[in-house]
Amino acid sequence: MPKSYVRLTHPLVRDTRGGELRQATWDEALDRTVAGLRAAMAAKASIDARTPIGVFSCSKATNEVNFAAQKFSRVVLGSNNIDSCNRT
Q: In terms of residue numbers, what domain contains 76?
């Protein structure tokens, strides 16, 4: 049975909020991701350093992916709040 979607093979970004998606390089996409995370962390720190950040992972992901998500949450974001719905 053919799938009804096309798998992305390159990152897509928007230059303006609600603008059209355009193809980008991996470096550009990752740089934008880093900038967005830094902005979110700075906004969190300016409000209250104790403001929690949560991360959602997927129970259907591999153990390795969930391990990487929890490491990212704890080491990079400084948060122990991670949920991967493994209890279901």
A: 52-88
